[in-house]
Write a structure and sequence with these properties.
By secondary structure, the protein is an alpha/beta fold. It has two domains: 213 residues, Alpha-Beta Complex (Quinone Oxidoreductase, Chain A, domain 1); 138 residues, Rossmann fold. Helix content is 26%, strand content 22%. The protein has nine helices and 15 strands. The strands form three sheets. Strands 3, 4, 5, 6, 7, 14 and 15 form a seven-stranded mixed β-sheet that branches. Strands 10-9-8-11-12-13 form a six-stranded parallel β-sheet, sandwiched between helices. The protein has a two-stranded antiparallel ribbon with strand order 1-2. Strand 11, helix 7 and strand 12 form a beta-alpha-beta unit. Helix 1 crosses helix 9, helix 3 crosses helix 4 and helix 3 crosses helix 8. The protein is globular and about 65 Å long. The two termini are 20 Å apart.
Length: 360
């Protein structure tokens, strides 16, 4: 059996649609029919060449929800329940399971053999922009309940699980603390919702364009600032300090990009906490050494552990009444229009585009 896949053969160029044989599964592997694949900034950065891919040409898409069509052996979900064809799942990334990071520190995202998706040759079938997707041995599969759509479940497999990892590193939010979220893309929007859900006194979001900022308001931000109306750091710094007694935010989440790391460090109050999720590559950052003499605790996040994928699905399933999650999803595209989706994401014209490989 063959599968259609959307292939990046050259940076910034139209993707090609190939038909490739589905590889034989390894023991412990799973083959899914892709129900929905969502794209994020990382996919656009790889297409533009800002973040390198593991192989070239490659199939993009690392946020995938699919229905199992084949399993090799006794494959179980994160709760140790046997899986079967017809089950809808998302998947964590594979890791070796026996190195220092897997067994001692239990930081599997740092495993040297961590195998993410959306960056491999078409023959490996490990990209979401395809009719079928292989989840290799060493992954952890999370079952998707009926009340969570495949499109939202796919978004949970990147943005939401990463944000949950960040909140785990952050720890408890006190009822008097303010949270500032930099960025109104999928990471920033989910961080806004989590900050509201975790009991922050005030939640502020700074981002652009207006389409994304409006979703932040719907997802619990008390106040938002459209960066298009405040283009300089001085303006944004004045905005947040005016709302926090001149101190800066108690907690800052950088969900924008690498450059915003410096902005976030300036906007956190002395003795505050700073969590950096946004990573976009680029040249080394210039950081004023005085920023490191303000007592700000810094956490940086690398992807997510399997438990965060599970927590992400549970959050979507249990908080649908509190947050209009569907506002995250912008346009739907057939597989043949994956290039249009990537262009829209790169130009910030999309919030979370959805690829539907089996759409008519």
């Amino acid at each position: 059996m063959d599968s259609k896949v959307a292939v990046i053969t050259a940076l910034h160029e139209e993707l090609e649609i190939w038909s490739v044989p589905i590889p034989e599964l390894q023991p412990g592997g799973a083959l899914v029919r892709v129900d929905a694949a969502t794209l994020c900034g990382t996919d656009a950065h790889r297409w533009e060449g800002h973040i390198p891919s593991n192989e070239s040409p490659f199939v993009p898409g690392h946020e995938t929800c699919g229905t199992i069509v084949e399993l090799r052996g006794d494959v179980r979900d994160i709760l140790n329940v046997p899986l079967k064809p017809g089950d809808r799942v998302i998947s964590s990334y594979a890791h070796c399971g026996h190195c220092y990071y897997c067994r001692v520190t239990r930081q599997t995202t740092l495993c040297a053999e961590n195998t993410n998706y959306g960056t491999w040759s078409p023959a490996k079938m490990m990209g979401g922009c395809a009719e079928y997707h292989v989840f290799p041995p060493g992954t952890t599969l999370v079952r998707v309940p009926d009340e969570v759509s495949s499109e939202l479940a796919a978004s949970a497999a990147c943005a939401l699980r990463t944000v949950l990892h960040g909140f785990e590193q952050l720890g408890t939010i006190a009822t008097h603390e303010s949270v500032l979220v930099l960025g109104a893309g999928p990471l920033g929007l989910y961080a806004t919702a989590l900050a509201r859900d975790r009991g922050a006194k005030r939640v502020y979001t700074i981002g652009a364009p207006a389409l994304r900022v409006s979703v932040a308001t719907a997802w619990g931000a008390d106040e938002v600032l459209d960066m298009d109306t405040a283009p300089t750091l001085a303006e944004r710094l004045a905005w947040i300090r005016a709302r926090t007694g001149g101190r800066g935010a108690d907690i800052v989440f950088n969900c924008a990009n690498s450059v915003a790391f410096v902005d976030g460090m300036n906007m956190a109050r002395p003795g505050g906490r700073f969590v950096s999720l946004g990573h976009s590559g680029g040249p080394p950052l210039a950081l004023d050494p005085d920023l490191l003499f303000r007592g700000v605790r810094i956490d940086t996040v690398v992807m997510a552990e399997a438990r965060h994928f599970y927590q992400a699905i549970e959050f979507l399933a249990t908080r649908a009444g509190a947050f209009p999650f569907e506002k995250l999803l912008s346009n739907r595209f057939p597989l043949e229009r994956t290039t249009d989706a990537l262009r829209g994401m790169a130009a910030l014209l999309e919030i979370k585009p959805v690829i539907l490989p089996h759409s008519e």
